Amino acid sequence: MSIVDGGRRDALIRFLLERGITRIDSVIVSHADADHCGGISLLLADPRFRVGEVFVNPDQRQTGTWRDFLSVMIDARERGTQFRLALNDIDAADVCCGDSRLEVLAPSQDLAARTAVGTTADGKRLDANTISAVVRVWARESPRLLLTGDIDRIGFDDLVAHRPELNSDVLVFPHHGGLPRGADPESFAEAVVRAVDAQLVVFSNSRGQYGTPRPEIVATVLRRGGDVHIACTQLSQLCAADAPEPEVGAEDWLPMAAVSPSRCAGTLMISLAESFSYRPSRTSHSAFISNHAPTALCMRQPLQGSASG
What we know:
Largest sheet: 7 strands, mixed
Distance between the termini: 40 Å
Strand order of the largest sheet: 5-6-7-8-9-10-11
Number of strands: 13
């Protein structure tokens, strides 16, 4: 089993234990922000789990989150975990896991070498989001899922320059659908959606924090994505001012999602079989929206005056 990022708290650990999973072959940490790295630190510190190897780029910012990660890294290494402190499109190009494989598309080796406190060759300032890893999950010969971390416009342009073929069935949208640093959100969303051409676009968001996903980004995805299905992991306050009551047993195949009053699509399960499918289905997710999201962003008409290409 492979993991890409782990959230901020213990949701990953609870998810794994519910399924009896204690052995993880590989972990990729896209970048060392707390909402991507914190759950991995908890995983590595938990003696109930055995982790084979971890891919991560060192964080020159020396944040508290990174210092915590370094501390648990020492203990995990003593229990047999190997750490690969070079995460880029060359040094960690493929991570295999059964019939699937994880393809590291970004950052490029050149961008990673400049670090989150450096600048590009033409003087643009980098940060942790710029060099966030982008990982594509393949199911046999099918590009199934593109995980974009928090990549910003500078990082995305560098990605497209090195890897112009980004198509995938599912796109987890960058930065939770938040504002891309120093870039117009609509043109950024348009570039991402056009490059990936996904059937399902997922926003990994939190209710009531940071206003994600941004309405202008959702509108751009709707306009450019054809018959795309948009799914948020939690119900944005922009879609429903009040969270619905918990629906215990509504989806007994995924109890953590079913009992959360703020979930929308909740935790999505993407099939890695030959045929593309996912749960909750578009039909059941649409039913939830109809019942609980009176001002759903994903059901609105595209914003007037939005940029087009």
